[in-house]
Amino acid sequence: MWNSEKITKTLLFLASLIIVLITSGMVLSLMNGAIPVFKEFGINFIFSAEWNPTEGREDYGALSFIAGTLITSVIAIFICFPLAFSTSLFVGEYYRGTRLAKIVGTMVDMLAGIPSIVYGLWGFYVLRPLIVDLGFNSQGFGIFTAGIILAIMIIPYATSISTEIIKMVPNNLKEAAYSLGATRKDVILSVIIPNARSGIFTSYILAFGRALGETMAVTMLIGNTNLIPKSIFDTGNTMASVIANQFGEADGLKLSALIAIGLLLFVITGLINGVGKLLIKARL
Amino acid sequence: MISLTANNKEPKGLDSRLFKDRLFKVVVFIFAFITISPIVLIIYKLIIKGYKQINLSFFTETAPDTYEAMIALSNNEVIPGGILNGITGTLLMVVLASVMAIPIGLLIGIFLYENSTKRYANIVRDITDILQGVPSIVLGLIAYFWVVKSITNGFSALAGSTALGIMMLPLIIRSTEETLKMIPETIKEAGMALGVPYHKILLRVLIPTGFSGLLTGILLAISRIIGETAPLMLTALGSMGVNYNIEKPTSAVPLLIWEFYNDPNMVDLIWSSSLLLMGFVLLLNLISKHIMAKRA
Questions:
Q1: pTM for the predicted model, two decimal places
Q2: Helices (H), A137-251
């Protein structure tokens, strides 16, 4: 007999199937859309940096976009690390539990609320002229500029987890070090960091995963050239930005190539986030 | 004299250690200060450049075309028109996305909470995490295939809200599960001991008790999708007028910002539109923080 408990449980179960269907359907749709380009170029699609949409001589490869994505995200992590880590120490150690820490924490959280396109505008009108003035490159566009904006965008993600982890370091360990005459710097470098290392590492992995998929701000700043960047001040394109840029006029093989890039982006972010989640699980 | 120099040596080591400690602290503070400066600089820039445009017609008129804007520019006037088509479009798509994502998200969140240790629930939880990590532009691609290509046969508000809804789903699922987990088991057990049917425990005990947490999760999810641009470029496309037909292309505030940015005549409108968008996101965040603080 069907009673209310069974109906409720079935309803909940059916709901859970929806998300399984959405996600698996997503993978299938992307794979389906990517078939033509992989049929045409095979695995070479991933390892070729050619991108030529001219009719009759079409040649597509994703390497320059994969490179652009990875390089901008790595730059972002390098810039983000000292900033976010210092903020974590400020909030989670130096001013732990105080009003000031709360204000700083809130301001950092607010960074996560700014829409990507607003970051793009700010990067374009404030940061880019600065890059030009500093003489890094003449237009101010490029993977370095995009990397800086990305760094600001991922700071809240990197900060929030590392702050929690830093707060979790047992007090008696810190007190033991203080009683031996350690200064606060010594405690941070030889007690907190070794203890919180894996957690901090994880938070940067997850922040890296965020950086990989950012679209609008990067599109507005990276310069949008389909080449593998040779220096960090070169222009380039990321996987997300090439989809946003070229989707409008795409059909046929080019559309398929963009979808294949979407699939690769899905796989890469999935892998990075998966590693992050595994690290968190291994720790807890 | 001798004892003095010996005394001097000891503190010297201490001095240098204290100096390093202080130096370290200063460096940490400087970096923390740099970290919080962008938010101040961005809000400052938006207010300074944007406040002039914000008046009543900004909310009641649709976006100007490039010719009107050009004439206003050459006469040194404020650009006429507003972003009504963007505001209505954003509202339409956010409401539609919420209608799709909130009930399902709550149900799945409850499912995960009820079956927290089961293997299938763990798989569902992992899938939720994967979905949360999917870049929004990929969700735009998916909505393009599922809705633009198959259902509405053209760019549409429905496609835009599908992308936004999929984006909301994992956020709501996780916040629902986390909220329910914090409710003491005893409250639920008390209901069970009274012989209350299962669905009534959910509806009358768990959901009311966790209501503020669930609401916070929903508000935060909305604040996360409201500024999304990239997926809407592939799905809703944008429109010049106000549109309430979910099968037609629709504008949204972030889409308008993108259009203004690409049009030299209308570029002045980006700041006011961004200010409004940003203000709305921050308001949602503030409300949810307030709700959380009240609960604690």
A1: 0.93
A2: 143-168, 171-179, 184-187, 193-213, 216-221, 239-246
